[in-house]
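Deliverable D2.4 — example input (structure tokens):
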């Protein structure tokens, strides 16, 4: 495909799922693969485990989410992860969870995710979005996320009446789809917030920067965020963020520097953080600017990939 041709590395796609194991093993032998990096998906981890058993090819795993909490997966995870050369956790929170299910701590290395600082940047023109949703002259808060209870959109809605007393021109954009949509819409109706809350279906990833650029504050008071790449996307656009003070959010957001961390179960803290950022433009700009600097210096894909390479090839000659 055109996508494959544009990439700097070789992409090989398997077509028959029924023979995926055999196709994968033959591919490894034909291409003389020396290492395997599993970036996503438990199915691929099992394939890497098989390749290690049969072909003695070492493999590393990048673990992104909290699926390791599922009891029915823990036995399989302990088996397949134990044979990995290295396990790369995207946050200290994920590393802690892995150690709790008896994955050897020495195998686990933390490497934060990154974002594209060119695609997400402070210079994006958001006029079309602001015109489409009549946002001129309004203070805009934004959440882009799956609509799930642990993400905390319902807490933001519950905090809005309090925040509106201090910021009456506030508008809340909720972007995403999920099982909580009906519940969230009901909260908005019950609180009389129909004119203050705009629900938007999932947007294409290439359109997300337009919405970050249109907001004043990004808020996601999740109580179980594995890391929180949306915080980084907002920071990359120069926006301050509000996150939950637990889980992976502790790594994604530096409290008082790139955003504010709050108790995700406290509507008072969420409301106060919103008011603080929306009524103090100097603070909001400082946090947004610092967030952007952090993306440019540390949390971009170039740096993330470089660190992954260092982890995978640790102790080996550069000529290998």
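Example output (designed residues):
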């Amino acid at each position: 495909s055109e996508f494959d041709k544009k990439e700097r590395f070789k992409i090989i796609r398997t077509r028959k799922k029924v023979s995926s194991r055999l196709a994968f093993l033959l591919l490894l032998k034909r291409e003389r693969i020396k290492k395997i990096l599993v970036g996503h998906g438990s199915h691929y981890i099992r394939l890497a485990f098989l390749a290690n058993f049969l072909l003695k090819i070492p493999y590393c795993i990048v673990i992104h989410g909290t699926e390791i909490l599922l009891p029915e997966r823990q036995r399989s995870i302990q088996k397949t992860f134990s044979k990995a050369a290295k396990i790369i956790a995207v946050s200290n929170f994920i590393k802690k969870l892995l150690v709790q299910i008896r994955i050897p701590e020495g195998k686990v290395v933390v490497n934060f995710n990154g974002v594209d600082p060119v695609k997400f940047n402070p210079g994006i023109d958001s006029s079309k979005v602001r015109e489409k949703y009549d946002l001129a002259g309004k203070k805009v808060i934004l959440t882009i996320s799956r609509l799930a209870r642990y993400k905390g959109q319902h807490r933001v809605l519950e905090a809005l009446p309090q925040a509106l007393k201090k910021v009456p021109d506030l508008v809340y954009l909720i972007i995403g789809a999920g099982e909580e949509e009906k519940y969230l819409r009901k909260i908005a109706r019950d609180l009389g917030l129909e004119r203050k809350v705009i629900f938007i279906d999932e947007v294409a990833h290439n359109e997300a920067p337009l919405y970050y650029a249109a907001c004043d504050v990004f808020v996601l008071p999740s109580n179980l965020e594995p890391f929180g790449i949306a915080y980084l996307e907002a920071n990359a656009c120069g926006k301050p963020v509000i996150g939950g003070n637990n889980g992976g959010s502790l790594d994604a957001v530096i409290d008082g520097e790139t955003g504010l961390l709050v108790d995700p179960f406290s509507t008072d803290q969420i409301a106060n953080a919103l008011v603080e950022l929306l009524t103090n433009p100097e603070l909001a700009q400082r946090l947004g600017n610092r967030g952007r600097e952090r993306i440019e210096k540390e949390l971009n894909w170039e740096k993330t990939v470089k660190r992954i390479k260092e982890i995978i090839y640790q102790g080996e000659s550069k000529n290998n």
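The mean pLDDT is 92.
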